[in-house]
Amino acid sequence: MPETCKRVLNDDDAFKPGWPTSTLELIGKKSFIGISYYEHKRLRHLTAASINGHEALSVYIPYIEENVVCSLEKWSEMGEMEFFLTHLRMLTFRIIMFIFLSSESEEVMAALEKEYTDLNHGVRSMAINVPGFAYYKALKARKKLVAVFQSVVNERRNERKTEKWLKKEDMLDALMEVKDEKGETLEDEEIIDIMLMYLNAGHESSAHTTMWATIFLQQHPHFLQKAKVIDETLRLVTFSLTVFREALIDVSINGYVIPKGWKILVWFRSIHLDPQIYPNPKEFNLSRWDDYAAKASTFLPFGAGSRLCPGNDLAKLEIAIFLHHFLLNYELDRVNPESRVLYLPHTRPADNCLARIKRHNTFSTQER
């Protein structure tokens, strides 16, 4: 299985993305999931420079840390709250909005986050555009998101024409300035689809993984000193469960022929829960990572190959900073610890992790 996944995900001459209609229409045909291999390679190189690598990420650490500390302090005074759906996602969304759009507008963030919630419920649904279906509601949400982003792009273009314009060095500026071999810039549709995709992926994955890492550590306090909590959480509760690929030619893998045009679903979760790779795979166990290095294509929380999630380092940085401050000073008191788990659009407690954030009263951060 891992070798098959490695071939399907890495062989760009034999396979291309094969996402369902609903995903392609909602995330955007001009986003990374819809464009060609060569265009994807070019734009990925451009955009990844803003969010990957030690130099780029070090710029964001103070901002992320400041927002995490302030949010935790605020939450600890709120009492019962939806830890995940409302507050944790808004925190990660604020961070990604600042990095990509230099924006901290609470009004804009609240409006966009609401639409993203509806959008994500339709991404993995059947493409049934009829009232009452998730896809219908998601299309309406996309239309509103596109309108907001078009307004942001228009405003930025006007600002850039003024004499007092100061370059903001964010993702939107980078996308507006990129040129192809002919010197042509990106169209608004391309910029908007790429931004829509990045802002969605850039806060959903971080918020989900942070929530589950917090829950698991609260359930297993003896693991608090382990540094591998992020990897074990990503393995056990894989954020992106699947990826779709389409065969460009007849491909022979392990004696089987995949005909040209066939779509392949790579199920990451089946690999992460394979007992031959990870003994007792459904158990949250950080000790499994002691002196263990995952072999190629056996640990795929962010995909693999040329389409590997470009924001994976940023996501792990956000999670690490949050857990650092949370574990030093707070604890999570869930209202419904036995709440059932929902798996679409992403794995989460049915009550969106209804909980209270409590501050430790034993000693301060400085004393620790």
UniProtKB/TrEMBL annotation:
GO terms for molecular function: ent-kaurenoic acid monooxygenase activity; heme binding; iron ion binding. It is found in: Membrane. GO terms for cellular component: endoplasmic reticulum; membrane. InterPro entries: Cyt_P450, Cyt_P450_B, Cyt_P450_CS, Cyt_P450_sf. Keywords: Heme, Iron, Membrane, Metal-binding, Monooxygenase, Oxidoreductase, Transmembrane, Transmembrane helix. This is Ent-kaurenoic acid oxidase. It is a single-pass membrane protein. Belongs to the cytochrome P450 family. GO terms for biological process: brassinosteroid biosynthetic process; brassinosteroid homeostasis; sterol metabolic process.
